[in-house]
Sequence to fold (309 residues):
Amino acid sequence: MPNLASVVGEIAQRMTARDERGKVASYIPELAKVPIDQFGIAVFTADGETIVAGDAEVPFSIQSISKVFTLTLALGKVGDQLWTRVGREPSGNPFNSIVQLEYEKGKPRNPFINAGAIAVTDVLLAGHEPREVLGEILRFCRFVAEDDSVAIDEHVARSEKQTGFLNTALANYMKAFKVLENPVDHALGVYFHHCSITMSCRQLAMAGRYLAFSGRLPGKDVSVISSERARRINALMLTCGHYDGSGDFAFRVGLPGKSGVGGGILAVAPGEASIAVWSPGLDPHGNSVLGSLALEHLAKAMRWSVFGD
Ligand code: DON
Fold:
């Protein structure tokens, strides 16, 4: 097996040298300000080591990667009841598409498209004020990252709110079909804020440990979720984590992964590693160009595909 530290170092060098980086998200104006020439990678391994390279300590907006953490919390709160509110099939549509919602009577296809994540946030809101739910989400992220400096970027949250016309449409649509139970502005307020959580690659790789290691934090006597639940969240990440680019990501990388329009990707090599990559340039589906490429190289070099070596 090749040496992981040299593979990671080499990948960072190759990515830094590339010119083709896609485009930084511009529909959230605050994200458009992030310089494109950045690349970071962090790999947390079974023996408790974190190998980092490039801009691995720079905090970035985790955006849709936060949907993995809200899904984990909602499953913890209502269990399989969640699937009465949101499906678990790939959508084959862009993350902010509204077309399927009308055909399917306001029930989102999966928890990772925007509509699905807003519905998951609504489940977390039952019986709570928005700021309590936001506190719960942030505390969970800090707990799994083992880092209290994980924070919310209020500028990004405000920017999202000001330009969130499509998300507002999705939420209103679901409210009309009674899929949302709480006020639309509560669900959207919490959603915009959890998308605005910032983490570095190092923090994100730490936060993904429970998914890579059967619901547990390796080396610690801590169970975050059951192994069955971790397996199922990983299945959803594999099939839906990259929206209408999920099939291509599975083909190229072969690992469960969740992307965000901040340019981050959390990927999971079950039993082997929790991996975070970040580079702000995106492909047309909203997935990091260099992040996907880096994971493709890493999974190939380490033979970490879930489909076999
Ligand atoms: O609601 C939005 O559009 C963003 N807060 C999150 C979208 C996102 O990250 C899609 N992922 N690639």
The first helix runs from residue 4 to 16. Residues 4-62+199-302 form a domain with the Beta-lactamase fold (CATH 3.40.710.10). The longest strand covers residues 40-45.
